[in-house]
User: What shape does this take?
Amino acid sequence: MSEQEKNELRGLISQIQYKVEAQNERFEKLFALLEDEGHFKGEIREGLLEVKAFLNDPVDTRITNRMSKVLKQVFLTNLPYRSIGDLFKGREDMVEKLRSALGAGKTAAITQVHAIHGLGGVGKTRLAVEYSWRTLEEGKYWGVFFIVSDTAANLGTNLANLAALLNLPEKSSKEQPVIVEAVLRELERRTGWLIIFDNVDSDKSTESLREEIQPRLSAGDILLTSRRSNWPDDIADLPIDKLAEPDAVAYLLEKTDGKRSKSTDDEALAKQVARKLDCLPVALEQAGGYINQVRIGFNTYLKELNESRQKVLSWHNKDLVKYPVAVLATWQTTEQHLGLRERAILRLASFLAPEAIPVELFKSKPELINKAGKLPCVL
Ligand SMILES: Nc1ncnc2c1ncn2[C@@H]1O[C@H](COP(=O)(O)OP(=O)(O)OP(=O)(O)O)[C@@H](O)[C@H]1O
Ligand SMILES: [Mg+2]
Assistant: This one.
């Protein structure tokens, strides 16, 4: 926390103290925490929440608002995605289920209903991320940590990376096990945090999580996302399905509002698009992004999608390709509008892990892009 932020906070606390006319040790404790360089952000947050309890009586709403704003800032997180706000559709029941499944050191898994077992893009990570932002803002957690866990190696590296976020002295150690141990110890010492293990799909990462990590993390909540089902009984399994049609339609209409070329029957057309894409979030997101980028209407998109579908059907083999035709058709529609250079970058990126890829990688090696442009490709 910067000196300026601290000063703002001190001002705010004094104002609250003055308003509620309280000479209370909680206020003193909070001021002391702000003086202490080695303070832990979680403690400041806890102190603030205690002080916030004084605001239950009707006081100046300006103070209440500022307090909420400060609370929203005093947390630790490495969440890789921002909230998509109102564009997040159709998962209110799941958010509520998560609220009751988590709390006081519990573990829950966001999985997929059996019918779409194995297929990605149904919205597991998005649900975990939106749940996290909401609960952070409500003050349920002081920290939310996001760990990409597709392989056991990534699980270890990303857990070790938390040492820097938590500002632990071991962060500069050269030994990964030492750093991981320090992180686990720190989390064990505190409550009020949530850790997300994203994409626990491989046998090795599942084993590492179940045997080495989960038993050490009972002080806070664990949320994992996985394409696997059949988790043991100590993990609340919350399977999600594709979006309901009205939610998929609302998503398409809102996502493209202001950018698509509009027509009077947009609602009916959006329904057709949603059906063609089988209401699968990843396909809806791609379609919306494409419509916005090219600034076309739903009718033009439907036409292009049908053409792509025919092409995809000519080579699609469901034993070899896991994705359904609906997703491949949106992909094909987007891909055919790319220039040679963009296609080459895309092809290169497809060899890398699905996490954020540094732009520098492509900027620093232009010759790679040229070579990739000459590779054969099925699409
Ligand atoms: N409820 C929703 N409302 C709006 N958009 C959503 C929703 N759920 C997911 N999306 C969007 O759909 C896309 C795919 O979702 P996400 O990455 O969460 O899928 P996933 O199930 O985690 O896939 P994978 O198994 O490949 O990790 C993302 O761009 C996400 O923002
Ligand atoms: Mg995911």
Observations:
- The chain has a mean pLDDT of 85.
- The first helix runs from residue 3 to 20.
